[in-house]
Write a structure and sequence with these properties.
3 helices; Rossmann fold; three-stranded antiparallel sheet
């Protein structure tokens, strides 16, 4: 797309399936295609998510998912590498934006034992 083409961009649950390098390129691309004062709505998984907490760390933010319980949502993600964010990483990756807001979605299951945790990031160019 051409520069400053869109008033808004929605990126929900997509970035987490990529490497840091691809995520950084995507952040720059979102910034490039947004008009001045455009807004991006991005949802990424946080390091508070059970997939991050309970799986093998490849790096500080990357995890290899290994879920044996077919009843858990991560079962369908077995063998996948995923990228997780803490607030500092969100700020670092999306530093080219003028303003941002970081909120979260938390869904607990099994009496709070399992926690799906994502950040809702609102960015303004």
């Amino acid at each position: 797309y051409e520069d400053e083409k869109f008033d808004g961009v929605i990126c929900y649950g997509v970035l987490l399936y990529n490497s840091k390098e691809v995520i950084e390129k995507a952040a720059k691309e979102i910034h490039r295609v947004l008009k001045k004062d455009g807004v991006a709505y991005i949802v990424v998984r946080s390091t508070k998510d059970y997939r991050y907490v309970n799986n093998e760390k490849i790096s500080k933010y990357e995890v290899l998912v290994n879920e044996n319980d077919i009843s858990k949502s991560a079962f369908e993600e077995n063998g996948m590498k995923m990228y997780f964010f803490d607030k500092d990483e969100v700020k670092k990756i999306f530093c080219m934006f003028e303003t941002y807001e970081i909120n979260h979605i938390e869904i607990s299951l099994e009496d709070g034992f399992i926690c799906n945790h994502s950040y809702i990031v609102i960015l303004k160019k």
